[in-house]
Design brief:
Elements: E1 6-13, E2 17-24, E3 29-31, E4 35-36, H1 38-57, E5 62-70, E6 79-90, E7 93-106, E8 114-131, E9 138-139, E10 144-145
Antiparallel strand pairs: 1-2, 2-6, 3-4, 5-8, 6-7, 7-8, 9-10
Length: 146
């Protein structure tokens, strides 16, 4: 992820799941009302998928497809939790479900006051497919090249 774009505040992962918390920085606000572009969330989905691939296979692999749906607004200064979960693994192909939840929002779109949301708000979801090159794919559980 681009260091200047968002600051990670926490990352908690397993081999099949990743959680990235970030604050959308002012450099992410490209539109009126400091709206964050969808590319920021897509990039973070890609980071979460890559992290799982590294933990699961020992390789970042290659993201083949990412089908995203944007459901809510994100503004600069708001905090987002992005989750990815490995849902299917066959051969060198991996399928993922990804979600992005807003957990802290601005009280006024152009202000600096924020509040933690009582319930996270789903702002985007995606499905992703990635492949891992056979020569690089390692199963950490078995510690052998597949």
């Amino acid at each position: 992820m681009n260091k200047g774009a968002c600051a990670r505040t926490e990352a908690v992962e397993t081999m099949e799941e990743s959680l990235i918390r970030l604050r959308a920085s002012s450099s992410n606000g490209h539109y009126s009302g400091h709206l964050v572009d969808g590319a920021t969330l897509i990039r973070t989905f890609g980071d979460a998928v890559a992290e799982i691939l590294i933990r699961h296979d020992g390789s970042e692999g290659r993201l083949e497809t990412l089908d995203a749906e944007f459901l809510g607004v994100v503004r600069s200064g708001e905090y987002i939790e992005v989750r990815a979960m490995l849902t299917q693994s066959y051969g060198m192909t991996r399928r993922f479900e990804c979600t992005a939840y807003k957990v802290i929002e601005l009280i006024q779109p152009n202000g600096s006051s924020t509040r933690a949301l009582p319930e996270p708000e789903l702002v985007a979801k995606a499905t992703a497919v990635a492949t891992v090159p056979r020569k690089l794919a390692i199963s950490p559980r078995l510690n052998v090249v597949q």
